[in-house]
Amino acid sequence: MFIGEYTYLIDEKKRLAIPAKFRKELGKRAVITRGIDKCLVIYPMSEWRRLAQKLEKLPSSAADSRGFVRLMLAGAVDVALDKLGRVLIPDYLKNYAFLKKNVSILGLSNRIEIWDAKRWEEYKKRTEEKAGDIAERLKELGI
To answer: For labeling, which of 14, 103, 110, 140 is most exposed (least CB within 10 Å)?
Structure first.
């Protein structure tokens, strides 16, 4: 399980080191794709396969389904971790998530999110301010 929040740097060759705690579970290969909130998401191959199977079942006749599938699959890239646990972030994904040099790497159970560090701090602050309201709505869902 991926948990925790880490701050790392993207080097001049567009490589990002994955936290050591995440590397074993991630394995030697992973998939990086666009996330919903203008971040990137890294999936272990096993989790990516499960997600891809669910995406394949969405109706292609529905515009929202087509759009979401395109966002996730067309934006995805299969990456290999090098000996130092780094992955190469393609320019189109860096641009999508506004990644600069400083990034936040978040462990979210079955996936990892990558955020521009400044954008993550802003998002986190806004979400923390609404935590009580969010908790009330989640209560209605039985959480």
So the answer is: 140
